[in-house]
Amino acid sequence: MSILDHVEFVVRDAEVSRRFYEQALAPLGFSRIISVGSDRTRSGGTRHGFGKEGYPRLWIHDNELPGTGTHIAFAVEDRSLVDAFHQAALNAGGSDNGEPGVRARYHEHYYAAYVLDPDGINVEVVCQRPV
């Protein structure tokens, strides 16, 4: 079981970000699990939950002011998934914020890629296993 249950953050447009995350996270096995309409949320915005095995671990919603400096990292077991995420995220309209590679400043096995989503949120996928 993961210590991280779920993460949620505000985006400018829930539908634009939904399309981005559906494509960008597909290589990791994440998909949209649930959507909650604006009539059922506290902020009056739309919410989308993404995850694996029927449980949403990443939530996005709109109708509030997006924060700056938001960062989320997904852990994977294989470096090829880091590469696949990076390409899928760029194809989905994300901006490169660090192409796949070893980040030795963290440790010799920290293989990661970074992409900014449509709202500038820094999304990372990392594999920390030795080659």
User: Percent of residues in beta strands?
Assistant: 35-45%
Number of strands: 8
Largest sheet report: 4 strands, mixed
CATH superfamily: 2,3-Dihydroxybiphenyl 1,2-Dioxygenase, domain 1
Q: What would CATH call the architecture?
A: Roll
Task: Give an account of the 3D structure.
The protein is an alpha/beta fold and 131 residues long. The protein has one domain: 2,3-Dihydroxybiphenyl 1,2-Dioxygenase, domain 1. The protein has helices spanning 14-24, 79-91, and strands spanning 7-10, 31-36, 47-52, 55-61, 71-75, 95-102, 111-116, 122-127. Strands 1-4-3-2 form a four-stranded mixed sheet, covered by helices on one side. A hairpin with a 2-residue loop joins strand 3 and strand 4 (55-61). Helix 1 (14-24) runs antiparallel to helix 2. The longest helix has 13 residues, at 79-91.
